[in-house]
Structures are given as structure tokens and as C-alpha cells.
Amino acid sequence: MNKKVVVISSSLRLGSNSEVLAQAFVQGAQAAGNIVEEISLKEKDLRFCTGCLACQSTARCWMQDDSAAINAKLKEAEVVVFATPVYFYAMSGQLKTLLDRTNPLFTQSCAFRDVYLLMSAAEEDPQLLQPVIHELEGWISCFEQAQLAGVVAGGGLSEPSAVSPDTKAYQEAYQMGLHC
């Protein structure tokens, strides 16, 4: 059965390592026959959540930016994938801002069950990437139906364009997409 897959790439750098991992996942998911949409946060207008919680009763945010359109796509997706560079042992600020702005989804019924995390980091020790995983697991725990289905932790990727089809992280992302 074909699944609706939404892949969010949060790097602002064109052709970044995390973006290449996202594209590998997309290729694998498409090869498996899934319907895939990739969304880059590069040129999106995403403002910070003000914490007013109006969205909890209205199911939408009062701010007019790109988060409403992204939330609509996330709500309908069966599989959600987040790709992020790791800065100071944390996900990118762009991704964190987006996750905060998904607050309107908290009170709604969402289709997604499986959530994947693709990350690229200069650090090679996978233990030091655990804070990023933990942070995403906190978001996932707000959606009863969802689970963290897989993680690609591409470490030792300090140079731009370090990820290529012959790297382990790329192959893992492709395989994860193929089997999502």
C-alpha cells in the first residue's frame, strides 16, 4: 500500500549533508511506490510560537505564516521525516521553531504513525547525538498514535557535501525510505 510521506528538510544550506540524507530517504520511499513530498524550510516564513495557546481551542494559529500549510501536510501524512543538521548537540533552530508551531495539531486527529529522524553532525560519537533524539521523542510523545520509527545519525560530516551515495549514512537513509 502506498503511503503519504512528508519529508521536512531544515537546513538553510543548499545541498547540505542533512538535505542530501533527506533526498536519499525520498528516493528510497519513491522507489517503494510511496507518495512523497519534500518540504525545505529554507525560504519559509516561520515565526516563533508566542505560547498563547489559542490554537488549542481553534485548531489553528492566529499568526499568518507558512506553518499553517506545513501543518496541513503533516496532519495528512502517514509518515513524517525530519532532517536536521546538528548544531551544539541540538536540532536546528528552524526545525525546533517548526515543531513548536505544530501545536495546533495537538488537539486534532493526525494520520502519521511513523516518524523518522535524519541528522548530520560533525561529531562522530553517536551518544552525543542523543539530545536531538530525546528532543524529537518529546514532540512525538504528544501524539499517542506516533512512534519514532528510525534514526540515521550521520556523524563525522563536518565538510559540506560529505554525504554521497557511497557513504553509510546515505545508504541507511535510502534503505529507511525504501522500508518506511
**Overall pLDDT confidence:** 94
Q: Helical proportion? A: 25-40%
Kindly report the name of the CATH homologous superfamily: Flavodoxin domain
Q: Helix/strand-derived class?
A: alpha/beta
Beta fraction? 15-25%
- The N- and C-terminal alpha carbons lie at a distance of 11 Å
Number of helices: 6
Query: What letter string, H or E per element, gives the SSE order?
Result: EHEHHEEHEHEH
Poorly predicted segments:
none
The value of Rg in angstroms is 15 Å
Q: How many structural units, i.e. domains? A: 1
Which CATH first-tier class would you pick? Alpha Beta
Q: The CATH topology is what?
A: Rossmann fold
Total number of beta strands: 6
Largest sheet: 6 strands, mixed
Shape: globular
Instruction: Label the CATH architecture.
Output: 3-Layer(aba) Sandwich
What does this 3D model show about the protein?
The chain is an alpha/beta fold. It has a single domain (about 5-40, about 55-180), classed as Flavodoxin domain (Rossmann fold). The chain contains six helices and six strands; from the N terminus they run βαβααββαβαβα. Keywords: Flavoprotein, FMN. GO terms for molecular function: oxidoreductase activity. InterPro entries: Flavoprotein-like_sf, FMN_Rdtase-like_dom, ISF_SsuE-like. This is Flavodoxin family protein.
Features:
Flavodoxin family protein, oxidoreductase activity, 180 residues, alpha/beta, globular, single chain, Rossmann fold, ISF_SsuE-like
Spell out the blueprint of helices and strands.
Layout: E1 4-9, H1 17-31, E2 35-40, H2 55-58, H3 67-76, E3 79-87, E4 90-91, H4 93-101, E5 114-120, H5 130-140, E6 147-154, H6 168-178
Parallel strand pairs: 1-2, 1-3, 3-5, 5-6
Antiparallel strand pairs: 3-4
InterPro entries: Flavoprotein-like_sf, FMN_Rdtase-like_dom, ISF_SsuE-like
Keywords: Flavoprotein, FMN
GO molecular function: oxidoreductase activity
